[in-house]
């Protein structure tokens, strides 16, 4: 993976070549990281707990400059067609905007809403995150653009929480992805050598040390792309909401496993109005919330062995109850489980493809990578640590 200096250079070159920019003019940049979720999957939109960490030096850089053209010009280095788009407020309908650009247009619109400003910019975007791998490239893009706009327009009065919610709203309203709040949260508030334990119901969070130098986190990309807007994500969210409503609570985040079992085992009850597989789907969410809370306690107390066991239990639940894994993810995790020195392994992200994460002892890293390369030849892996959240800066060119 390229580091941020080369990613910045790539983005600046793209900006200058696209907009024929004078090299004597300064530019502004915003960066936000991708993430992996250590545990707590599909719990954020159920008002549960999640436990993500930001990826060190892996994310999106947005470079831009204010203009007086009254439009939003966007170019990306991603391999998409078209890779450029000009959004003209009042003239361009959202249906005309390419899917990738909707995230950017949505952020601009939401930034305008919370800042009471009108934005006119030229933007260039580059990322070293693999798209569709489940490493939150979308939230990385959103938060990088928002961070850039804050600096470009000298806006300092937007709280971190309002920024996070504005980026989430952009994804809901403009990209049509009903995501939870975790990805925007960690992209904004990530910290070096720390994971972020987030209560998605209250927005309370706690930074928990995750910098044990005897351990590494290996991320394995199956290269099977997932697409959250494809419908399966929305179906599972709707199922969770239906079960919560049938119990009489606002969300599954307020349900204990004993309460869930009692609800579904009530004699004479009719559940025909609920979506198919409602019990296993909701069981995953309720037990995953409990696992996330226990995992945080493990990191605080230093019980890495139990932390790894909870990772393994999480994957089994995601495979069997929530059914969001795939054969490639299951094989990667199985290979990891069978490798000496591995603490725990699970899929991460929305599922249906994407990545698995493996916590491994540093002296076993090479053995694990060799086994993954040999037994899962379709995949690629890299080792990482917890990195910083979003920031912005001025570029003198």
What attributes characterize this protein structure?
alpha+beta, six-stranded mixed β-sheet, 11 helices
Give a written overview of the molecule.
This protein is 40% helix and 22% strand. It is of the alpha+beta class and 397 residues long. The strands form three sheets. The protein has a six-stranded mixed beta sheet with strand order 5-4-6-3-1-13, with helices on both faces. It is globular, with a radius of gyration of 21 Å.
Q: Helical amount among residues, as a percent range?
A: 25-40%
What average pLDDT do the residues reach?
93
Order of helices and strands: HEEEEEHEHHHEEEHHHHHEEHEE
Radius of gyration: 21 Å
Q: Based on helices, strands and strand pairing, what is the structural class?
A: alpha+beta
Portion in strands: 15-25%
Largest sheet: 6 strands, mixed
- In what order do the strands lie side by side in the largest sheet? 5-4-6-3-1-13
Low-confidence stretches: none
Termini distance? 24 Å
Tell me the number of helical segments per DSSP (H or I, 4 or more residues long): 11
Number of strand elements: 13
Which term fits the overall shape? globular
Concise structural overview:
With 397 residues, the protein is an alpha+beta fold. It is built from 11 helices and 13 strands. Helix 3 (137-152) crosses helix 4, helix 3 packs across helix 5 and helix 4 (160-173) crosses helix 5 (182-189).
């Amino acid at each position: 993976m390229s580091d941020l200096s080369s990613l910045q250079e790539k983005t600046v070159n793209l900006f200058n070549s696209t907009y024929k920019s004078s090299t004597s003019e300064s530019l502004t940049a915003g960066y936000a990281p991708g993430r992996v979720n250590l545990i707590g999957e599909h719990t954020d939109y159920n008002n549960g707990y999640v436990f993500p960490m930001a990826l060190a030096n892996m994310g999106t850089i947005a470079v831009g400059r204010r203009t007086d053209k009254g439009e939003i010009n966007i170019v990306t280095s991603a391999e998409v067609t078209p890779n450029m788009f000009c959004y003209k407020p009042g003239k361009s309908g959202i249906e005309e905007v390419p899917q990738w650009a909707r995230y950017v247009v949505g952020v601009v619109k939401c930034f305008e809403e919370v800042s009471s400003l009108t934005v006119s910019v030229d933007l260039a975007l580059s990322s070293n995150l693999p798209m569709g791998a489940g490493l939150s490239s979308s939230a990385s893009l959103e938060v990088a653009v928002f961070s850039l706009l804050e600096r470009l327009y000298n806006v300092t009065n937007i709280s971190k929480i309002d920024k996070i919610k504005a980026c989430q709203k952009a994804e809901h309203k403009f990209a049509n992805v009903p995501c939870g709040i975790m990805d925007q949260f960690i992209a904004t508030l990530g910290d070096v050598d720390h994971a972020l334990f987030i209560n998605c119901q209250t927005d309370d969070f706690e930074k928990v040390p995750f910098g044990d130098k005897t351990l590494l986190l290996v991320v394995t990309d199956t290269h099977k792309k997932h697409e959250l807007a494809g419908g399966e994500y929305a179906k599972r969210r709707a199922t969770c909401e239906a079960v919560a409503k049938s119990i009489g609570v606002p969300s599954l985040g307020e349900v204990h496993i004993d309460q869930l079992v009692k609800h579904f085992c009530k004699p004479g009850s009719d559940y025909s109005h609920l979506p198919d597989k409602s019990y296993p789907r909701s069981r995953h969410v309720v037990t995953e919330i409990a696992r996330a809370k226990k995992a945080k306690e493990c990191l605080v107390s230093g019980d890495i062995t139990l932390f790894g066991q909870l990772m393994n239990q999480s994957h089994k639940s995601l495979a069997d109850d929530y059914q969001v894994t795939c054969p490639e993810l299951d094989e990667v995790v199985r290979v990891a489980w069978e490798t000496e020195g591995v603490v725990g392994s699970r899929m991460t992200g929305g599922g249906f493809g994407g990545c698995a994460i493996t916590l491994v002892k540093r002296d076993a890293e090479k053995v694990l990578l060799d086994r993954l390369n040999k037994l899962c030849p379709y995949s690629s892996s890299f080792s990482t640590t917890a990195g910083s959240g979003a920031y912005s800066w001025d570029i003198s060119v």
